[in-house]
Amino acid sequence: MSYEIIKSINVDIQNMKVYLNHASNNVFPKTFENTTIDGYGKYRMVNDVSAREQFVYSIVEDFIGGMMQARTSVSDKFRYAMIKTQDVAKQLGNGDAWNCLGYDVHQENEAKYIQQIAQTFITHYQSPNKREKACIRLNDGMYIKAINRKQGKIYTTPSINDAKVYKTRKSVYIDNQAINYDTQIVKEGVV
Fold first, then answer.
1. How does pLDDT run across 123-178, given as a tens digit for each residue?
2. Does the reported pTM lie above 0.85?
3. pLDDT surpassing 80 at residue 68
4. Which of 34, 38, 74, 186 could join 70 via S-S bond, C-beta 3.0 to 4.6 A?
5. How far apart are CA 144 and CA 28, in angstroms?
6. Do the Cβ atoms of 135 and 116 come closer than 8 Å?
7. pLDDT at 38 over 60
8. Same domain? 138 vs 115
9. Are residues 71 and 119 part of one domain?
10. Are residues 47 and 120 part of one domain?
11. Which is more confident, 104 or 96?
């Protein structure tokens, strides 16, 4: 399956523009290029849904559907908004985010789903990234020391003093979601 590898993305919700640095996954050597997409998602309009909501929904649909895949270089702001939006899509789709996206959604639910998904993304994308020192504790009492995403390895330590310290709420949330363990976010100084 062909998809776009996204190195960076900036969504201008007000002006409905997307700024991408991307490359195709099936072209070698990888040549990343900068692209500005004006009016993303105009090809499909749904009654009772604003153009801005459709614009945001189209971006979310392409990421959840696999047409675009983000590298770890994509901003925490965007990744956090996508994780939160995907959680809402899973709830709407009875455990599967794709069930509430695409063309197979019942017409009576389509506008409601698009609006809810778009508003979730907008809320989390525009929310401030609060500075908050924290670390992640696994349920076995160990703390995350480092994560190597390329190798899929997690390094742990028994000491909170050696634990990886996250500086913002969004960055700790993103890693916490990526780990797939039962975890607890611990604010600095709290054991």
1. 999 988 777 788 888 878 888 888 877 777 888 889 888 888 888 878 877 777 77
2. no
3. yes
4. 74
5. 36
6. no
7. yes
8. no
9. yes
10. yes
11. 96
Residues 98 and 146 in one domain: no
- 137 shares its domain with 58: no
What whole-number distance in Å separates Cα of residue 131 and Cα of residue 129? 6
66: phi > 0 → left, psi -120 to 50 → alpha, else beta; which? left
What's the pLDDT score for residue 191?
36
* Same-domain status, 112 and 19: yes
Give the mean pLDDT of 28-47. 77
Cα(184)–Cα(173) distance, integer angstroms: 10
Q: Are 89 and 145 in a shared domain?
A: no
The DSSP code sequence of 7-53 is: EEEEEETTTTEEEEEEEETTSSS---EEEEEESTTTT---TT--HHH
Beta strand 68-70 with 143-148 is: unpaired
Structural domains counted in the chain: 2
Counting DSSP H helices and E strands in the chain, the numbers are: 4, 9
Find the domain containing 182 and state its range.
Answer: 131-187
> Is the same domain home to 106 and 156?
no
Residue with tokens 């017409």: 107
Q: Which of 126, 141, 169 is the last residue of a domain?
A: 126
d(CA 106, CA 54): 17
